[in-house]
Amino acid sequence: MTIDTKDMLNSILSSISRIDYVRPDDIPNIDLYMDQVTTFMEKELASSKRHEDDKILTKTMINNYAKNNLLPPPVKKKYSKEHLLIMIFIYYFKNFLSIKDIETMLEPITDKYFDTDQDFDITSIYKEVCELEKSRIPEFEKEIIRSYNSSKKCFDEAPENDRDSLQLFAFICNLSFDIYVKKQIVEKLLDNFPDLLHSENTGVKKDSAQKKK
C-alpha cells in the first residue's frame, strides 16, 4: 500500500499553522472553583488533545500540582487568572519534563511574580513567552519541510514496496532526534538553573552596591 506522505505533511503543516495560545483576556477576571477551572481548560485546550477521551486537566492533577509545589495554593478553594496561566505552563511542560524539572523552572517564577502588585507579573511573562513561541511557527514549518525532504532521499536501494514506509520511518526518526536533542539541552539548563539564578541575582546585588558607592 502506498503511503500518501505528501497529504500527511500538508495536514501536519496545516495543524501547525493553526497553533495558538490561550490569551489572558480570554480567562475570566473572577476567581474560579475547581469545576469551573477544569471546564474552562477542557474547552480552551481541546484542540491539543490527541484522542477525544483524553483529559486536559482533572481535580486530581490540580491537587497533585499544589502538593508538589508546582502551583500556589488556591484562596478559599478558588483559583485566580494567574493560577490558570501557571496550569497552562504545566500542561505543556509535562509532555516532556518531569514534575521535578517543572518545579525547578516554575518555582522561582511563582515566588517572585505570582500575585504581586508590580506591573510586571505572571501575566506579563506568559504573554511574552507565548508571543515568542507563536513567532517561531513559520520557522518550524520550514524545518519540518526540510526534514521531510531529507527523509524522501533515504532508502533509494530499498525494495520499492518498502520504500514509502521506510522513508516515513526516517521522517519520524528525524523529527524525534530534534526532540531528543532539545530535551537534553533543556534538562542540562535545568540542572544548572538554580545556580544560574543565584549568580544572576548576586550580580544584580553587586551592581546595585557599586552604584550606591
How does this model look, in words?
This protein has 213 residues and is mostly helical. It has helices at residues 5-17, 34-44, 59-67, 81-93, 99-113, 122-135, 137-151, 160-191, 193-212; strands at residues 32-33, 78-79. Strands 1-2 form a two-stranded antiparallel ribbon. This is DUF1836 domain-containing protein.
Topology at a glance:
Blueprint: H1 5-17, E1 32-33, H2 34-44, H3 59-67, E2 78-79, H4 81-93, H5 99-113, H6 122-135, H7 137-151, H8 160-191, H9 193-212
Antiparallel strand pairs: 1-2
Characteristics of this structure?
single chain; 213 residues; mainly alpha; two-stranded antiparallel ribbon; elongated; disordered C terminus; DUF1836; DUF1836 domain-containing protein
Count all strands and give the number: 2
Low-confidence stretches: 204-213
- What portion of residues belong to β-strands? under 5%
Coarse structural class: mainly alpha
| Shape by Cα distribution | elongated
Rg, rounded, reads 22 Å
**Largest sheet geometry:** 2 strands, antiparallel
End-to-end gap: 77 Å
Mean pLDDT rating: 87
In helices, the fraction of residues equals 55-70%
Protein name: DUF1836 domain-containing protein
InterPro entries: DUF1836
Organism: Dorea amylophila
Pfam families: DUF1836
